[in-house]
Amino acid sequence: MLISREMVLDQDIGLNATLFGGDMMSRMDKVAGITASLMSRNRRFLTVKVSELVFHSPVRAGEIIEFYIGITRQGRTSLTLQLEVQVYEPVSDQRRDVTSGEFVMVAVDEALQPEPILWKPEMVQVAEAAHRAREGRAKRA
User: Fold this and answer.
1) Which of 6, 17, 21, 101 can pair with 53 through a Cys bridge, CB separation 3.0 to 4.6 Å?
2) Which residues does the UniProt record annotate as the domain HotDog ACOT-type (predicted)?
């Protein structure tokens, strides 16, 4: 499921004329938190784990990045999200892989203690279907 698009600005760029890796990870973490909130009726989520963050290609100022996300695991108090980031080039309508990673988010109460996730089934179904479709396209490519 496409969750967000952002443009990379000059102030986001480091000495190598590319987006800082830490900046990309921060953006991905925000998208993971927003997605967890969209999939449930819970107000708060914390990032518990980030794994397999792999950078495939650099991002430069002026490029548009797209965040695709899929739910790979649903638990009682946590969910695991697979994020894929691509650069979208509107002139050519082409995309290139930038990075991917797995984020584990835990629902928490006001005291920041784990609480059960109150799923929105219709949103989960949409996200799962979109993730399966992206996986199918990736296998055919």
Assistant:
1) 101
2) 1-111
Residues of the chain with pLDDT > 90, as a percent, come to: 79
pTM: 0.88
Of 55, 68, 67, 65, residue with least CA distance to 87: 65
3-state secondary structure of 98: strand
Q: Which domains does the chain have, with CATH numbers?
A: 2-140 (3.10.129.10)
At 115-138, the pLDDT tens digits run 999 999 888 888 777 777 777 766
Amino acid, single-letter form, for residue 107: A
